Amino acid sequence: MKKRLIFLLTAMMMFLAACGNEEASSGDESKEKDTTTETITYESESGPVEVPADPKRVVVLSLYVGDLLEMGVNVVGMDSWSYDNPEFAKAYPDAEIVESTDYEKIIELEPDLIIGSNNVEDAKKLEEIAPTVLFTYGKLDYLDTRMEIGKVLNKEKEMQAWMDEFKERSASLGKEIKAKIGEDATVTVAGYADKQIFLFGDSWGRGTEILYKEMGLKMPEAVADVALEPGYFGISEEVLGDYVGEYLVLNVAETEKDTSFLESNAYKNISAVKNGNVFYANGASFYFADAYSLNYQLDFFEKHFLGK
User: Using an 8 Å Cβ cutoff, are 100 and 83 in contact?
Assistant: First the structure.
């Protein structure tokens, strides 16, 4: 009887120990599942890339910070050109400034995704740090690029919703602006930096995509002849008047040191200037054509063309 009792107690202890081990093992597996990052496959220009389904720490090395901002995705590092945009610096105050060759600094940021342009010096080094997606500037239409960013972030539906609203608002504002300034009124978009003027076509940021593509406003022929195909064209200060239409959107960075040309007679005698039809944009905030910046530019045009 005593032997039987000892046997039963031993068997029970072994059973309880096995259950405990199974629960611990199950718990470990559960923890492992929790810490495993779910991924999706994005078909990039260079082939399929496994990217996080819900990226939390993204390093952006080119023109796409505003897309992540509009989609509510965290950016831990961005290039200096992007950080110069006060809107981005304000939205991501803790983000570090990094360039595409700052490999050690990027490693320290522990990114789960890197997004940039394909002109980086060494894409393989970036790929060793985190999943990396690189785009060729101008390869896709500017709105198609927004959709590709949405796919990378696993936010295609959200980006589509943004795009639908953007196109609807652009068309509506375009009709109002044409009704006010006239169907045939011409608009020039230019930038002023280091005593040089740049004219812009319809695909080089600065609101050109909105004005010419979405709203259908007219570009002066003189500008189209030199800037439409290459995207931009540099001219001297003295000949700006030859290219300015009835309205001028002039990008001047707030940090620009020498703006004496804007006080010269050559500038003040331009018809658009004399008629008060010049809209000054902060070049650092107006440069990009990402989702956030496009909304920012729409607000700017609504305010300056329509006074809203």
Answer: no
d(CA 250, CA 38): 46
State pTM to two decimals.
0.86
Q: What does the pLDDT look like over 24-46, one tens digit per residue?
A: 444 444 444 444 579 999 999 99
Report how far residue 238's alpha carbon sits from residue 244's, in angstroms, rounded to the nearest whole number.
12
39-154 and 179-306 agree in CATH topology? yes
d(CA 184, CA 181): 8
Tell whether the torsion through CA atoms of 277, 283, 289 and 292 is positive or negative.
Answer: negative
- Which CATH architecture best describes the domain 39-154? 3-Layer(aba) Sandwich (3.40)
Would you kindly state where each structural domain of the chain is located, as residue ranges?
39-154, 179-306
For residue range 224-247, list pLDDT tens digits in order: 999 999 999 999 999 999 999 999
Q: How far apart are CA 146 and CA 156, in angstroms?
A: 9
Instruction: Dig out the tokens for 127 from the structure.
Output: 């790929």
Superfamily of domain 179-306: Nitrogenase molybdenum iron protein domain (3.40.50.1980)
3 state SS for 92-129: CCCCEECCCCCHHHHHHCCCCEEEEECCCCCHHHHHHH
